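Methods — Computational structure assignment.
A single polypeptide chain was analysed. Its primary sequence is given first, followed by the predicted tertiary structure written as structure tokens.
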Amino acid sequence: DTTPPLLSNLTATNLTTSAATISWVTDEPASSLVSYGLTSSYGSSQGDGTLTTSHALTLSGLSPGTLYHDQVSATDAAGNSAVSADQTFSTVPVNQPPLVQAGADQTLTLPSSAPLTGTVSDDGLPSGTLTTLWSQVSGPGPVTFSAPTALSTTVSVSLAGSYTLRLTASDGAL
């Protein structure tokens, strides 16, 4: 036998923030080797000497939100080797909490209301959906928000004193 194994169905699956599974199929039993790294020079490898036609190696200890290059190879019982072309996959980035700004401090003359305009930025993870809520942290009396779940709202106060209001945002996870 002088024919190397035929490689097919190369995929990167089960992607997480720190791991990926590289899978492929060969047309004859062969060992498994994945070379991987931040460039096509690779630098790391993981292998399994078991002769099989269904190959799957899980790479762990990867960095979140990072593009990796990988190349698979398989060697049959006769020592014939096949090597794939360079491929890439990206690990899942770490979800960051939304960044919230509630706006500048304001001074009011009673009875009064004031417009509030907050801003929120987010990394779009996990789903890209944000919820926001204005709330009262402290103050001598109750406050009323015209639209407590909107970034722009109006707050009404009826008692003199210092009030602390808060704008919170959630991306569903953080």
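Note: The radius of gyration is 28 Å.
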